[in-house]
Amino acid sequence: MTPTVAQKVPVRSQPPGKAKRRRTVVAPHRRDNRTAYLMIAPMVILLGIFVIWPLIYSVYLSTFEISFYQEPVFVGLDFYRYVLESPEFWHSIVIGLYYALLTVPTTIVMALLLASFIKSLSRRAAAFMKTTVYLPAVVSTVVASVLFVFIYQDEGVGNWLLGMLSVGPVNWLNDPHVALPAIAVPGIWLGFGVTTLILLAGLLDIPENYYEQAQLDGAGPFQRMFYITIPLLKNVLLYLFVTGFTLAIQMFDLPLIMTGGGPVEATNTPNLYIFNSFRDLTPYATSFSLTASLLLFVVIGAISVVVFRLIRSDKAVDG
Amino acid sequence: MRKRHSTLCVAVSAVLVAAIAGCGSGGDEAPTAGGKTVVTFWQQQFEDYQQAWFKKQVTAFNASQDKITVQVQVVPGDTWAQKIKAAQAAGKAPDVATTNYGNIPAAVANGEVAELDGLMPAESFTDIKENVQSFVTIKGKHYGYPMLVEPSTVLYYRTDLVKAAGLDPDSPPKSWADLTQWATKLNQGKVKGMTIASAAPDLGWSSWGLQYNACGRLPVADDWSKSTATEFCFAQVLDFYKGLYQGGLMPKQPKVGYADGAPYGQGEVAMMAGGSWVVGQLKNDYPAMIAKTAVAPFPSIDGDQTKTTATLGGWTLTIDAKSKAKEQAAAFIQWLLAGDPAIMADFFKASGYSKYTVRTSVDKALVDNPDASADPFMKIISEKVVPYGKAEPAYPWDISLAFGTAIESAMKGSTDVPGALKKADSTINDVIKKQKLAGTAPTR
ipTM of the assembly? Predict the structure, then answer.
């Protein structure tokens, strides 16, 4: 029998007292803990300075009507009541949710279909497609907004295409019923590339023999999609849904540039609503927008919890 | 172990507090550079010629004496609010800032601006025209020095298209009904009959004149105790806008906001409701349009052109209440706005006479200027619009926005006119209640 490495290395016996003392000074798990604490310390300190402390201080400030020239007036939780009673605040949350519903599922479904298509391509064609699909992700939101404003003009490409079908013209950005879906289009376009690449990575992680076995058992493309692909992409989809929803609800720059929150507040997303509230120069506006931001933080957290609950996260088996 | 952690937390907190406190610390002396007191001046970005004019005058002021140096910074309008708030929070607000008339009462109530009476000579204030005095005065004290007034709403129309439509360009529409009739006749092909504001943030302020016109008041009681938005006359304002929009007489997807006269300059509309500043834009950017353009007071609800159709907006220079160089800042304002009338006469010349004077002495300086006296636009606006203009409201913007949203809702069919006014009424009353506005209307 060949001796193992451990058996080859002679074990030096040590005086019992010395060994005991060494174990008392730094136990191995303590040493590991210390290293771990040291490694996370920079991030914790930065988080403390730039996130936790400002958050705590913001909660404290939200109990005052803040003035930069006079003594702040303590008002307790009045501003929380004002925000929660504000129909405009809740309307903006509804707009944010509606925008998320328009963009997130659409983006994921389209990206999943495209990722499946790219997976089936040759290596060279897949590389070309991946680059092409990712391109919108590097376009600035401001540029995309301006581009789509031109597309949506009365005589823009959008109405020109509809004109070929003898439909329209449509007031894309000035009709309260159409404006938000019109803004969702560039939103989907901008997020589509990254989502596709993430899903493609998830798809490539699924062992090919699962599909081969299923095919031998007579499973068609849809059955393979619903019984193999989607269950094994559950964690990836969860990530995309949670990050997609939280980002979509907070959408700010597209409505700011394309519609300013109008028409008739139809695109007034929560962040835009808070931003516009802040622009009023009164002390009331400062405190109101601060409190609304804190409550939006709570609302987005609650929505994330709901999404986690709806899509129960499991570790992929043998993934 | 727990104790060590607590100690660490306390230490870190102490360091943070000290660091944050250190950021805000500063001496009581005004900053100096090269032996001169530095006065910071934030100018909100306006038309290009204004930036050039301010820069030229600041350079001239700095060269005219050796005790003060003014540092001017141009701030875009859409970032002004957040930038000024951030500066105020950090105790680094500019010594001098451009402030519009409507914001002065709230700034005074909040203690943001310094009283100018003790800082500038009394005769500087007696030179201000009577109808403008109240714009910068709270309880008899001056808190800003006015620079100009500009009516928010004037009617511009294309004389060539008017003639082609069989209308008389020398007899412009006087009532809202006349205007709708003109817009209908001028609505030809790709050229729309007219353009007017159609988005709530624009409607919030540009409709003040028409609110006064229809009701003689704004949709709030004089003492700011309650909303009056459901009065019938306000429904007439909404119906007027709704008729123009839903009748297809104006662009349904305007490319620019109300303040921008580009659609008229580019020939996309035959008539335009616009501020007097558009005269300057036309002269500078669309000179070919001047020869075929006429201006008139904006039509009145019943044709009576002595009723208000425009508010008189405009800008002042104010001094920050926490400024450490108040006297030096006041000296700069005195030199620029209240001193030699030729300086402000030069400004009005640069504006293409699209803005109007606030000082008697500047009027006198312009009398002998042939360009000013011969300008057809200036004559009509200064004689037929400015005298009937009213001050912008001093109440919070939320109230104006609520009414602007009501007009937009009616225009775009989100709700009917009574429903839109009911919602505006509820929002305005909510603003009054939460911002504790009842009884706080400023006394001039």
Answer: 0.82
